[in-house]
Amino acid sequence: MKQITSINSWHKITPDSENTEWPSARSGHACVIFRDMFLFIFGGMDENDSLRDMYEYNIPNNKWRKIQPKDKVYPSARASHAMVSIDQISKLYLSGGIDSNQTFKKDLWEYDIINNMWKVRKTSHGDFSFDRYGHTMNSFRNYILFFGGAKLNQTTKLPEFPNELYQYNLLNSQFKPITTTGAIPPGRFKHSTLIIQDNFYVIGGYTNQIRFGNISKLDLNTRVWSNISFHKTQPNPKADSNILFKGRYGFAVYYDNQKIFIYGGNDDEPRGDMLRLDLEKKEWIKHKAIGEFPSIREYFGFASSESALFIFGG
Questions:
Q1: What residue segments make up the domains of the chain, in order of their start?
Q2: pLDDT tens digit sequence for 255-300
Q3: For the whole model, what pTM was predicted?
Q4: Which CATH number is correct for 2-312, 2.40.50.90, 2.120.10.80, 2.30.30.30, 3.10.150.10?
Q5: Rounded to 5 degrees, what are φ and ψ at 46?
Q6: Which of 145, 150, 151 is nearest to 202 (CA)?
């Protein structure tokens, strides 16, 4: 596992040699950070099959632990699912994904960190049904927001890419699409999303045919979408700064001090570089970090704390 800190330095994390509960190599897993102290990993794919194991990495103590949930009730094996942590209530939420038999998952699970228990969440109308993979989940006030992802068209048996934004109310379990206006972004998967000061950002992604190099922003109060227009770079005024971000998918994203950082992903080829978007200047530049950079990889897991970005696997 690799970590880049706010002081701009990558380093490889090597737990104590006595720590034997490391997660195996995998891709397509989900990672979240809880209270800036614990990193959780669930599922993914190894060389043979989809996985349903869960691990906790204690950041201050530099130690992995395999989690054995009470009652042995937990989500089925899957990859390309989404997960979000909510510090205030000490819970994680997991949805969707696809398994090694190409079965789409449409459930929503809640993990109680304090009591080490998983349970299925329902909606106010019955079972939760959101059969997507490669989507994103973000928490906002009392809601979980779901955007994008691929789903299977039951007639053509081909993937399609809806562009609805959904919300799940944690207080009354109501699940519904959000009505928005403005420059509504096209559907996609393997993108990244961020919430910054009541604004919801959609970055990159693709549809198997189209890669998206733009960034869309939704004001969560007015519910109006807009596109971020990039300024021209200097000293070449004819160059568009988003040529650096030609449309990537499967990358890590990190926000710090009005800047969005991305690592890796794939555009014309797998990437192992870092880019930085200044939200005030609206300009992409290559970001120069120091230390031991991660090897080039795809479909890795990532999560960010207040001061660091962690990546694992791929």
A1: 2-312
A2: 999 999 999 999 989 999 999 999 999 989 999 999 999 999 889 9
A3: 0.93
A4: 2.120.10.80
A5: -105, -160
A6: 145
